Amino acid sequence: MDFLVPNGFIKPDFKGVNFELFRNDCVQVLKALPNNSIDLIVSDVPYHIVIGSRCSNKQGYPAKKQGKLFENDSVEFCEYLPLLYDKLKDNSHCYLMINEKNLAKLQTEAEKVGFKFQQLIIWNKGNALPNHYYMRCYECILMLRKGNAKDINDMTSRNILDVPNIKAGTKVHPTEKPVELMKILIENSSNKGDIVCDPFMGSGSTGVAALETGRKFVGIEIDENFYKVAYDRIHKLATST
Ligand SMILES: C[S@@+](CC[C@H](N)C(=O)[O-])C[C@H]1O[C@@H](n2cnc3c(N)ncnc32)[C@H](O)[C@@H]1O
């Protein structure tokens, strides 16, 4: 199992395989990766309501939090966005999946570190839960770029993506995303052999999509159980091809 606690500089060398998986805090792993080394970032980022911010609290008191999705959901936008920006190559894309409540804050924080807004993409999940204020049947995908604008590969793609959600009861992660959805983003913003990174890989859907489309994958997950799920999915795929 690739349980790696980086201490210094890591250069993914993809020894005999097309992926590098890290079970750790993505902030620590990203710091150790070389700058300008990633061709595309695709990630479904954790979010929570934060009272007080570690980033603005110079005395380092832990932020009070509420609304955590996962036990390890403690990372804030301002901790990892500057690192994502530094690690991404110039003139490349970054897709971050987020809910509508946190979209504005994520975009503001991303633009502060240098990302440019490129597009808002809506994932139409097909399913919906009863709600007092209209049933929610979509999620937001914030498309950003670093450097100059770059065309996507399929310019007939629309910014509403109709991809059925994974059926309840069959998910291996509570917020597991369909591989087909990740493939659309990956195929539009990278080429075969490119390096795709997901710093919050959960069950590894981005990794599966990257490998199935002939890309290389760098995945990071802090939770041991989710990491094992991703590791198993990605290793199984790599050994079956
Ligand atoms: C929204 S989920 C991603 C789900 C994924 N898209 C899938 O299809 O399974 C976000 C993931 O980020 C992980 N996470 C939270 N904080 C993290 C951190 N600091 N470093 C790495 N992973 C983290 C959580 O454990 C969770 O699995």
Q: Could you describe the 3D structure shown?
A:
- This protein has 241 residues and is of the alpha/beta class.
- Helices cover 28% and strands 28% of the residues.
- It has 6 helices and 10 strands; from the N terminus they run βαβββαβαβββαβαβα.
- Strands 1-10-9-2-5-7-6-8 form an 8-stranded mixed beta sheet.
- Helix 1 (26-32) packs parallel to helix 2, helix 4 (179-189) packs across helix 5 (205-212) and helix 5 (205-212) packs parallel to helix 6.
- It is globular.
- S-adenosylmethionine binds at residues 25-26, 44, 46, 70, 72-73, 75, 173, 175-177, 200, 202-203, 205, 220-223, 226.
In short:
With 241 residues, this protein is an alpha/beta fold. Helices cover 28% and strands 28% of the residues. The radius of gyration is 17 Å and the shape is globular.
- How helical, in percent, are the residues? 25-40%
| CATH class term | Alpha Beta
Instruction: Let me know the CATH homologous superfamily.
Output: Vaccinia Virus protein VP39
Rg for CA atoms: 17 Å
What count of structural domains?
Answer: 1
Classify the beta-strand content into a percent band: 25-35%
Q: What hetero molecules are bound to the protein chains?
A: S-adenosylmethionine
**Helix and strand string, N-terminal first?**
EHEEEHEHEEEHEHEH
Kindly state the mean pLDDT as a whole number?
A: 88
Number of strands: 10
Total helical elements: 6
Terminal CA distance reads: 20 Å
**Class of secondary structure makeup:** alpha/beta
Instruction: Describe the strand arrangement of the main beta sheet, using strand numbers.
Output: 1-10-9-2-5-7-6-8
User: What overall geometry do the principal axes of the alpha carbons give?
Assistant: globular
Task: Enumerate the spans where pLDDT stays under 50 for 5 or more consecutive residues.
Answer: 1-8, 49-53, 56-67
Q: Based on the structure given, which CATH architecture is correct?
A: 3-Layer(aba) Sandwich
CATH topology: Rossmann fold
